[in-house]
Fold this protein.
Amino acid sequence: MSSLSNKRIILGVTGGIAAYKSAEIIRRLQDQGAEVRVVMTAAAEEFIRPLTMQALSGNPVHSQLLDSEAEAGMGHIELARWADLLLIAPASADFIANMVHGRADSLLSAIHLATPAIVAVAPAMNQAMWAHAASVANISMLQERGVRIIGPDEGIQACGDVGPGRMQQPDAIVHNLGSLFQTGRLAGKKLVITAGPTREALDPVRYISNHSSGKMGYALAEAAIEAGANVSLISGPVAIAPPERCQFTAVESAQQMLNASLEAAADADIFIAAAAVADYRASSVAEQKIKKQGEQISISLEKNPDIVASVAQQTDCFVVGFAAETQDVESYARDKLARKNLHAIIANDVSRGDVGFNAEDNEVSWIDADSTKVFSKRSKAQLARDILEHMVNHHKL
Ligand code: PMT
């Protein structure tokens, strides 16, 4: 599977005869599972019609920087943030110089300045222009800034000259882009992740729950999406927005989380249970608000189904649980690994305030049948990437 799967790519087209090949690049990127939006400069529109690019990409073509209608929809900052990759192909000598000087006089150059995405350019120009000291210096400056240069090829040029400066063929450009993402490790895999707490109703206005914020499970979902996986996130009630590009199911109770998990895991490859599921629920939920009665009240509780153990028993997934413990963390985690019949468990010390429940950071140990790997304290976002990397490498998934 391609490392471009699930990636969002802005294809920037500048003025040059090679612009006609950009239409083919859209198709090749889509073949790899990427979503493409096209941004054209005014000069590019002289060579290929925006309508062609719109029809091929399936999205409106963006070209105006100062267009109030466009800015009200997806403006230049939103586009810059949306992208995982900005590919400028063809990149004319003029546009490359524009990038070197950090100009923001067109929509494409403003996106170039604003984007946190990887930037790649496929130059296309006359061989003498490519060989000019100014172009050589410009390309070297872009490389120093981390811009990836793809090509150009050598050969007969549109003007009849022979030499380097032809834009690479669409297939070669797309092939070269694949190596820009180290992730893609989970491309083609379906991951199901549970996150957040469950709420077990006592009456219409009260419930039993816990302090899970969902941050750990959501970070895993983000990291898996980044790695190219097809992600289903099943979440109890939390205050954070679900990541884009995943199947999201909101649930409240453990029973609802179980149903959603079994359905999503039926055709999944990997199941990760980061949710803090209530072990017990009320034996019966009062129809009306429970009235204050005397000094003490007893509530009868009964055991909830074990979601991660059910998935391990009923599906072919590689199943990973978390073990939230306040003492004897590793030995309780090993016990859960065996009892729930999991492939691995992530032991989480939740006795500390700086990691675990509702913290920004976490510190855990990955435990499987034959090894333990400690992940020292780091952000949940970084930890999620490191856990997935370890899971894929160590278990050859
Ligand atoms: O959400 P955050 O604020 O970011 O906090 C993250 C976290 C601390 C909640 C998370 O890292 C974590 O440790 N999650 C597991 C919490 C938990 O309920 O652990 P447990 O030891 O009680 O359960 C063991 C495993 O069984 C877990 O994978 C749990 O999802 C699963 N389980 C538990 C009970 C149950 N009825 N069904 C289950 O599937």
